[in-house]
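This is your field. Please look over both lines of this record.
***
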Amino acid sequence: MVLPKGEQRAAWLNDETASGKRKRASTIYRKLDAAYPEATVALRFTNPLELVIATVLSAQSTDATVNKVTESLFAKYRTPQDYLASAPGELEKDIYQTGFFNQKAKAIRGIAQLLVEEFGGEVPGTMEELTRLPGVARKTANIVLGNAFGIVEGIAVDTHVHRLSYRLGFSDEKDPNKVERDLMALFPKVKWFHLTYLLIEHGRAICLAKAPKCEVCVVNQICPASRVPTSGKKRARRASPRASGTARTRRR
C-alpha cells in the first residue's frame, strides 16, 4: 500500500491527546455507521474455502471482477482436490480476468495442497493456521475468520483501510500489520469487525485515492486531511508551515 504522496494533514493532529483521538475516532465510527448501515464484505461466498480463494483473487483486482469470475469458478472447483486436479494452465485461464493469474494460481494450488495434507481438506479456523497458507496474511485471515467463522481476532487492513487510517490520523504506519495494531488500540474490540467495512465503503464512495470528495464527507469537520474549511476550535488551532515548524498542514 502506497500512501497518497504529498498529502498534508492539519497541524492540530500533532497536538491531539490520546483521549482526544479516541473520542474523535468514536465520533467518526458513529457517523460512518450511520452513513453505511449495511456495510459488509462484498465478496460472494458460501463456505470458508470459497472466501479464502475469493480473497486471494481480490488482490490488485476489484470485488466486482472477482465475483464475476467466482460465479463459474466455484461451480467448477468445489473442493481443494478439484483445484489440485486441474490441468496445467486451466486454473490460470479460469482466473485470468482477476489479473496476476499465474501468481494467484500458484497460491491457490499451494493452499489446496496444504489443506489436503495437513487440515483434512478443510479451512482451519485460527489465525495461526490460516496464515500458514500460501498467499494468506493477516488481512485475508481476518476476513475469513470474521465472515466465515464469526471469530474476531483483529482488523483487516486493505488498501482503503490503510489510506483512510492515514488521512483520518489513526495511524502513520506504512506496514499494514502496524496499522492494524494502531486501530486495535484505538477502537474497542466490539467495533473491530465492522470498522473494516465502514472504512472500505467510505473509501470507495467518498474518500477516493486521487480525488477525495471532501465537500460531501460526513466527517470532513474532524478529518485532519479534509480539503474543506473547518470551523470552531479546530480552525483556531491550525498553524502555518512557518509557525508550526515541521508540522504538516492540510492542502487547500
Q: What stands out?
A: The chain has two domains: 11-35+155-235, 48-149. Residues 59 and 98 are 8 Å apart (CA to CA).
